[in-house]
Amino acid sequence: MVYLLDFLMRTGRHAQRVSTALLLLLLIAGCSTKQSPEHTHATAEEYYTCPMHPEVVQDSPGKCPVCGMFLVKKTTGPAVDADTSALPTPASSAVTPTDVQLVHPTFAAETTTITAPGVISYDPRQFERVSARVGGRIERLYVRYRFQPVKKGQKLYDIYSPELLTEQQNLLFILKNKPVDEALLTSSRRKLELLGLTTGQVRAVEKSGRPQLRISVYSPANGYVTEVGAAAEADGALEQAGPLGIQEGDYVQTGQPVLQLINTTTVWALLQVYATDLAHVQPGQDVEITLNDAPQAAPRQGKVALVEPLITSAEPTATARVYLSNSGQQLKIGQLVTGRIQPATQATGLWVPTAAVLDLGTRQVVFRQQDNQLQPVAVVTGARTGNQVQITRGLTTQDQIAANAQYLTDSESFIEPVL
Question: Where is each Heavy metal binding domain found (predicted)?
Answer without folding.
Answer: 47-74
